[in-house]
Specification:
Blueprint: H1 6-17, E1 23-25, H2 26-32, H3 39-47, E2 50-52, H4 56-69, H5 73-88, E3 94-97, H6 100-107, E4 112-115
Parallel strand pairs: 1-2, 3-4
Length: 116
């Protein structure tokens, strides 16, 4: 998605031009890659983003989100890590997601969700 979806790349470029920081979870990189990924384009997109790590503390916080939402990590692990990263930010957060319903379960109304 990240490297090949022109709409997402355009939204990232617009955010950059407005001076808005774009933050992603390190897991988003893994989720975005597939056999047709253009590595140069992916590297260019990532160069303008802040990639936040997923360590033990973040994993535990994401697990808590899953438990509170009644979701299973096997299916929702990456969503939970993304939600945790978004909720950890100190500024107003707008999350672009193809899984609005899942993110509402994980985040409630604590951030603004935009469907892509």
């Amino acid at each position: 998605m990240l490297a090949d979806d022109g709409h997402v790349v355009a939204l990232i470029a617009e955010a950059r031009s407005r001076g808005v920081e774009v933050v992603i979870s390190a897991l988003t990189i893994i989720e975005a890659v597939h056999t047709h990924t253009n590595k140069s384009r992916l590297d260019w997109v990532l160069s303008g983003l802040r990639v936040v790590p997923v360590g033990d503390e973040e994993a535990r916080a994401a697990s808590k989100l899953l438990m509170n939402a009644g979701l299973h990590g096997h299916e929702y692990a990456i969503d939970a890590a993304l939600a945790e990263a978004a909720l950890r930010q100190h500024r107003t957060v707008v999350m672009l997601t193809s899984g609005i319903d899942d993110m509402v379960k994980l985040c409630g109304n604590r951030l603004r969700l935009v469907g892509i």
